Amino acid sequence: MEGTKDLEKIVALTLASAYIKGEKPASLMIVSDRPESGKTQLVNKYDGTDGIALLSDATAFALWRDYGKKIERNQLNHIIIPEFLAPISRNKSTVNSFIAMLQMMMEEGLREIHTGFLKTAIEFNEPKVVGVITCLPAISYMSNRLSWLVSGFLTRFIVVTYKYSQETIIDIFNSILAREYLKENTLALRFPNEKTEIVIPKEIGIQCQDLALDVTKKERASEKLYGFREIKNILRLVSSNVILDNMEHDGDRTTVNQDDFDAINRISYLLNEEYNELRGR
Fold this sequence. Notes:
This protein has helices at 5-16, 39-44, 60-72, 92-106, 138-151, 166-177, 202-215, 217-221, 228-249, 258-266; strands at 28-32, 52-54, 78-81, 110-113, 122-128, 131-137, 158-162. It is an alpha/beta fold. It has a domain at 5-193: Rossmann fold (3-Layer(aba) Sandwich), CATH 3.40.50.
């Protein structure tokens, strides 16, 4: 899709977060101002990246049945659900079970699994943390936002919102007419075999904190949250930029620098509910 480089960057950073030693994988919710905004096409590009599962639909039981062994063996870093509307459109009890499982899996980590289809609980030797990447149009996001915020589910995500500028819309129409969508390339990333221990200098950490406070300014003013998880997420993102930079330049850097922070600061215009126009056409 035209004009989606910043979204691709955020997805890649989220996936790279699983390769930071001692950190938990970040989770990402991409929200567009309207349907047919290229979200599904964007995240589908990453099919083939090691350590992910790309799902068209899911329930708590199906996740365990199909991916329980991979979770147990630490072979699954992220679950990608391009159309999140599908799994949250079932009956209330099934959806609640699914959300509760994701919520625990993303933060505290799964210690055991209970579902109505399993005779006994399934226990892990240690908590298993798996990140989630998913997409929604604004209308579906807003209809669930309050309940997800109250339960703490939403704050586990890096929430990204966006819309297209008129210039980008014209570019997209032109690319469709030229049938360029038939030539879309995959973005299967090849991450390092070993996780990297990343050091964040104090001065960079302070900048990350200031950015997190700025991003969460409205929510903190209305006393909806403190912003603690947002600081963690931004620290993860700047560390992830080191991982991606090492991959691109065959490097072995382990310390965050100013360029890493600047890279995240540049795309921070998407880390809110303002639905800003994508930049960098």
